[in-house]
Amino acid sequence: MNEDANKPAELLGGREKAILTIIFLASGCYLILGSFGITDTGKLSANIPDWLIAVIGGMLLLLGLMIVLGDSGRINDLLAGLVISGMATIFGWISLFGDSANFSGDGALIADFTSFPLQRAIFGLGAIFCLLGAGYAFYRARTRKVKRSLNRDN
After folding, report:
1. Total structural domains in the chain?
2. Helices 74-97 and 50-69: crossing angle, nearest 10°?
3. Lowest-pLDDT range, 1-5, 72-76, 141-145?
4. Other CB atoms within 10 Å distance of the CB of residue 53
């Protein structure tokens, strides 16, 4: 049986991976430096706390690292859990502390009955689902068996 038949097809070539990696790593560094006041993030940081900008930058750095590493088993699962945890943090902050004036769509049908902004509930649910996804990724990182190659060159 052909061993290559069981491997997933590469979606991106080496050049595309390199470009995406540079974009993610540069964006992440820019945002992290901006959260410390080293670079100017402008309007982005007007209503957002600096620590949340650092979380977003950290997620971008981790995504760039994931592209470089490819599917590396446990490490990939761990990094995925960290990225999804960052997403949960962002959604949770928006749900609890986001400025309601910046929410688009009115959700009038449900909001009229509940006196609770529908958008906050949706971001809160998104945070919960992200936490569940992160938990699963961390579980996989902990329980995944390490693949050992039978054809080792010593």
Report:
1. 2
2. 160
3. 1-5
4. 20
Whether 1 has a pLDDT exceeding 50, the answer reads no
- Phi-psi sector, 116: left (phi>0), alpha (psi -120 to 50), beta: beta
123 & 134 share domain: yes
Same domain, 78 and 88: yes
Taking the CB of residue 34, how many other CB atoms lie within 10 A of it? Answer: 20
- Amino acid code (one letter) for 26: A
Domain that holds residue 138: 71-144
Per-residue pLDDT tens over the stretch 78-96: 999 999 999 999 999 988 8
Q: How far apart are CA 14 and CA 153, in angstroms?
A: 25
The pLDDT confidence band at residue 41, using thresholds 50, 70 and 90, is: confident
99 and 82 co-located in one domain: yes
